[in-house]
Design brief:
The structure is a single chain. By secondary structure, the protein is mostly helical. The protein has 21 helices and no strands. One of its GO terms (molecular function) is nitrate transmembrane transporter activity. Its main location: membrane. Belongs to the major facilitator superfamily. Nitrate/nitrite porter (TC 2.A.1.8) family.
Length: about 425
């Protein structure tokens, strides 16, 4: 019996890189689906609660508050205890939030809540709790990273994030039809059931990488030696605080945070904001707005991460990042100039291509630059970077409040500015890489 098989059998090691990738993707796909819910259903709830455009902007952003901020501790904790327990905890919290949302929506629709302020506060509260599912991104990135060697990081993380990010696109596209067929409560209940089922699937097939399984049996030093024999290249620091502090001391981490703020945080923001843009700026129906957001934008963005990861493996994450952010800026300028459906469609697709590839390129660079603290770096980049999803929708709503109808187009200036800044940062990383070869 080969030595590898002997080690696996002797220590009862379960799982493989392939099953790890599948399990992590399933968990992220299920958890991330929450981001699509408020963007569509807010149009049903907002009139009942008499919400203005700023309040709508904050409501669609609220799942991203916890979805972003909780990525920092949860991502770092993977270095300490492995991803399995962390991801399960996040999904269970998301289920609790979904139950709270269902009960709150039922109370609003049946007028059991007499105060619109109370209804709004409860939606914000349970939306934040449900948004914990979105934070599975960071823990999942670290979870998958430990399963794969550096040369396959682009492929693995591109596939993980690409298919996982497809959730908002798919759900945004089908949600209008679910609302028509099942009603608001039925649609939310169906998603909650889906989340429970996917959590059960992850429980069955999701195992931590070799080191985390071995360290429970033989201690750190021996676990590290055996894990490396089995092909695991990344070994965690073993402490969440240490992982966060080590990654925070590396200046490149902070360039990646800003780059991710506009590519992935911006992706989350537009998944929530575009239904409002399409319906209010270009007067599309809710079903068509869902299709344009879910399929034409969100799904394309998500799936572009898959080839984006392959491009990053082949031509380096730095080069791919430079090109992808240039594409993003071009798309944002088109959106700023657009006042009709055709031009907005072109701009949306261009932005989707650039953002999807950029997201893959950034996370190709995370384990490359911070191999000793992947969980911590993932937490910073995924958490603070995702804050774009929290801050951008209210900022775009502010453009509308200040400039009126044209503000829907002018708001895309945010993507032009931060996209240009990201091009500069990607060039700095490219220069740094070649200087130290």
């Amino acid at each position: 019996m080969p030595k590898r098989e002997e080690v696996l059998k002797r220590y009862g090691i379960r799982g493989s890189p392939t099953t790890g990738l599948i399990a992590g993707t399933i968990a992220f796909f299920a958890g991330f689906a929450a981001v699509a819910l408020f963007g569509i259903t807010v149009h049903t709830v907002a009139p009942l609660l008499h919400l203005n455009i700023i309040e709508v902007g904050w409501l669609v952003a609220i799942p991203l508050v916890t979805g972003a901020l909780l990525r920092i501790p949860f991502g770092a904790l993977v270095d300490n205890v492995g991803g399995r327990r962390i991801i399960l905890t996040q999904l269970i919290i998301a289920i609790i939030g979904m139950i709270g949302l269902i009960l709150t929506l039922h109370a609003i629709l049946t007028h059991s809540i007499g105060s619109s302020i109370l209804g709004y506060a409860l939606l914000m509260l349970f939306g934040a709790v449900a948004g914990t599912g979105i934070s599975t991104f960071a823990s999942g990135i670290a979870y998958v990273s430990y399963w794969f060697p550096q040369r396959r990081q682009g492929y693995a993380l591109g596939a993980y994030a690409g298919f996982g990010n497809a959730a908002p696109g798919i759900f945004t596209a089908i949600l209008p039809y679910a609302l028509a067929g099942l009603g608001l409560i039925g649609a939310y209940t169906a998603w909650a059931v889906f989340l429970v089922i996917m959590t059960a699937v992850f429980t069955i097939i999701g195992y931590d990488a070799y080191y985390f399984q071995l360290v429970k049996r033989v201690g750190h030093n021996e676990a590290e030696r055996l894990a490396k024999e089995l092909g695991e290249e990344l070994i965690p620091s073993g402490s969440a605080i240490r992982s966060l502090s080590e990654s925070a001391r590396i200046w490149r981490t902070w360039l990646l945070v800003i780059m991710y703020f506009i590519s992935f945080g911006g992706f989350e923001a537009l998944t929530e904001w575009l239904p409002t843009y399409w319906t209010n700026y270009l007067s599309l129906g809710i079903a068509m707005a869902g299709f344009m957001t879910g399929v034409v934008y969100s799904l394309i963005t998500a799936l572009m991460r898959v080839p984006g990861g392959w491009f990053s493996d082949k031509w380096s994450g730095e080069r791919v990042a430079i090109i992808s952010y240039i594409i993003l800026v071009i798309g944002s300028i088109i959106m700023m100039l657009s006042h009709n459906f055709a031009l907005s469609t072109v701009g949306t697709i261009v932005m989707a291509i650039g953002m999807g590839i950029a997201n893959a390129a950034v996370f190709k660079l995370v384990p490359k630059y911070v191999p000793e603290a992947v969980g911590g770096a993932t937490g910073w980049v995924g958490g603070l970077g995702s804050a774009g999803g929290l801050l951008i929708p209210p900022a775009m709503a502010t453009f509308v409040a200040i400039y009126g109808h044209v503000g829907y187009a002018l708001g895309f200036m945010i993507y032009t500015v931060f996209g240009s800044l990201s091009i500069i940062f990607a060039i700095i990383l490219y220069w740094h890489e070649h200087k130290h070869k």
